[in-house]
Amino acid sequence: MAQPLPSAAGAPRAGxxxxxxxxxxxxxxxxxxxxxxxxxxxxxxRGNVVVGEPPATQPVVPVQQVVSAAAAxxxxxxxxxxxxxxxxxxxxxxxxxxxxxxxxxxxDGADGAWVLGVVLLADGTGVPVVRGWVPEGEPAPPPPAGPxxxxxxxxxxxxxxxxxxTSALPPGSARVVSAADLVNRVQYPVANAFVTATxxxxxxxxxxxxxxxxxxxxxVPPPEPGEATxxxxxxxxxxxxxxxxxxxxxxxxxxxxxxxxxxxxxxxxAPAGGAGADPAGGAPAGExxxxxxxxxxxxxxxDVSSTR
Length: 308
Description:
By secondary structure, the protein is of the alpha+beta class. The protein folds into two domains: 21-51 and 229-263; 55-227, no CATH class. The chain contains four helices and eight strands; from the N terminus they run H-E-E-E-E-E-E-H-E-H-E-H. The protein has a five-stranded mixed barrel. Strands 1-8 form a two-stranded antiparallel sheet. The two termini are 39 Å apart.
């Protein structure tokens, strides 16, 4: 007698557990991938090392920390290449005996001259300071009297070949901005560099243009700030690549695990007796149905060849 088939309500749900495992595997795999990517990015940042920031982006310091005429033979006596463009503060007073024009310095397409002075520091040395720019043929306002506290950018001393002309200069002029020229004009040591003032330094009363008088100084634009210098640490970069390979490997394992889960779920949904079983409970389809009778078979198909 045929057994009744189980009802749909009582049938086991093969796909419910597989779906939960798939969600758990997915969450775990993507968490591992995210961790590997973040660790790889961190290792990459460690491998891309900044050796030096642009001098113009570094904090403002007193000029004596960058270059000093008092540091004879010391680190501050000569301006290093990575100190050019450094922002500094200059505190002291202008030497009234040094008020020079440096001609042949165009600005915005107009001919003109730099206005050069020397600030006396507390240690008795001097720092050349370009106070600003005036058009060609115009007189410059006198330097401010009394203490000054100005900001500027450090520049390397100029060589003699920078001068646009070798012709004789009028009194009160200089061909280049260099300590080698200024030491012949003063009786104190002068720093082997110069500072371009961020704001023009002049007497307040003389800063306003007047009929037949001095004109307002214009600031000399600072040089380009430059770029940070970097180097690569190949060991950290190799670690970064290793973490990213781990991330790819985690994705491969995740896809393979999902494929295995789908295969297991499909096998659980197949009939228990196999695909070739007879639904009526008999022998598998095709087995023994087309057997040809043998002459030794007795009645009913029984083999009687051995009957005595």
